[in-house]
């Protein structure tokens, strides 16, 4: 039996630096992830999009390892983003997925890796969903101003700050969208493919990804509109400045002719 838990602890983890300094031989590693089989029933999975997953680690061991990771974190995450799954091994039974449990007929490093990866993806999606909702709510506030007043009343400074924050969040999400792809090993093994497919359905990975992608498209359209409105507002302001300067020059010319002719 394995208890697998995943935690989102940062937006990024420096995997390259971590691998070079962590004393352990990875069962699988790349520029984006490192999976370690510490023993026959204890595993660690560190992923560069800020998630670390544990299998059969005590609370003290998890806490100590997360503390060790602190020097490799970029933009630590505030909030409680985590998920877990209980995995039971029953050689006599078929692969069975429950609400918060999983029964498998056999267990090896690749099976554990696929399970931990899917849990990690689910946790990462939870963070991105939160960030996506945050920027979507922000665009809704500006839309409400348009509906009520016929214009965006917020200052240019505040609008630019919001656009900058939104672009930053959007780019962070887009940069890590690859995390929702299945690993190559899945396409080489029918059992792993079935396991991966079942887990993606259990955690609604594909559905949640599509919803997130749809939200990002809405935000992108709104940003384009707000940027155009801001440019139009600046153009209108410049036009009025030009008009006032011309009017001042005309008035000055008229007064000059009247009093100094």
Task: Explain the overall architecture.
By secondary structure, the chain is of the alpha+beta class. It has 2 domains: 2-107; 121-259. 56% of the residues lie in helices and 19% in strands. The protein is built from 6 helices and 10 strands, in the order E-E-H-E-E-E-E-H-E-E-E-E-H-H-H-H. It has helices at 15-21, 59-69, 109-149, 156-175, 190-202, 205-259, and strands at 2-8, 10-13, 28-29, 33-39, 42-47, 51-55, 73-76, 82-89, 96-97, 101-104. Strand 9 and strand 10 form a beta hairpin. The model has no long low-confidence stretch (mean pLDDT 83).
Number of helices: 6
User: Would you tell me the structural class of the helices and strands?
Assistant: alpha+beta
Major sheet attributes: 8 strands, mixed
Average residue-wise pLDDT? 83
Number of domains: 2
Question: End-to-end distance, in Å?
Answer: 103 Å
Key terms:
261 residues, alpha+beta, 2 domains, 8-stranded mixed β-sheet
Short description:
This protein is an alpha+beta fold and 261 residues long. Helix content is 56%, strand content 19%. The chain has an eight-stranded mixed beta sheet, covered by helices on one side. It has a two-stranded antiparallel ribbon with strand order 2-7.
């Amino acid at each position: 039996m394995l208890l697998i838990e995943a935690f989102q602890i940062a937006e990024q983890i420096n995997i390259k630096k971590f691998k070079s300094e962590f004393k352990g031989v990875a069962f699988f590693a790349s520029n984006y992830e490192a999976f370690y089989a510490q023993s026959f029933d204890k595993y660690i999975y560190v992923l560069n999009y800020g998630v670390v997953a544990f299998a059969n680690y005590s609370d003290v061991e998890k806490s100590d390892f997360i503390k060790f990771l602190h020097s490799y974190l970029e933009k630590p995450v505030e909030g409680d983003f985590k998920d877990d799954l209980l995995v039971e091994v029953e050689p006599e039974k078929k692969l069975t997925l429950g609400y918060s449990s999983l029964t498998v007929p056999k267990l090896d490093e690749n099976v554990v890796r696929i399970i931990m990866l899917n849990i990690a993806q689910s946790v990462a999606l939870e963070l991105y969903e939160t960030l996506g909702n945050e920027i979507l709510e922000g665009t809704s506030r500006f839309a409400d101003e348009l509906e009520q007043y016929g214009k965006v009343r917020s200052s240019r400074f505040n609008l630019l700050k919001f656009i900058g924050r939104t672009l930053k969040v959007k780019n962070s999400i887009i940069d890590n969208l690859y995390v929702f792809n299945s690993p190559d090993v899945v396409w080489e093994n029918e059992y792993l493919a079935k396991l991966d497919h079942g887990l993606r359905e259990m955690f609604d990975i594909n559905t949640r990804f599509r919803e997130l992608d749809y939200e990002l498209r809405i935000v992108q359209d709104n940003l384009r509109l707000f940027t155009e409105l801001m440019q139009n507002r600046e153009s209108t302001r410049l036009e009025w400045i030009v008009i006032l300067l011309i009017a001042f020059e005309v008035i000055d010319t008229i007064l000059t002719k009247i009093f100094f002719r």
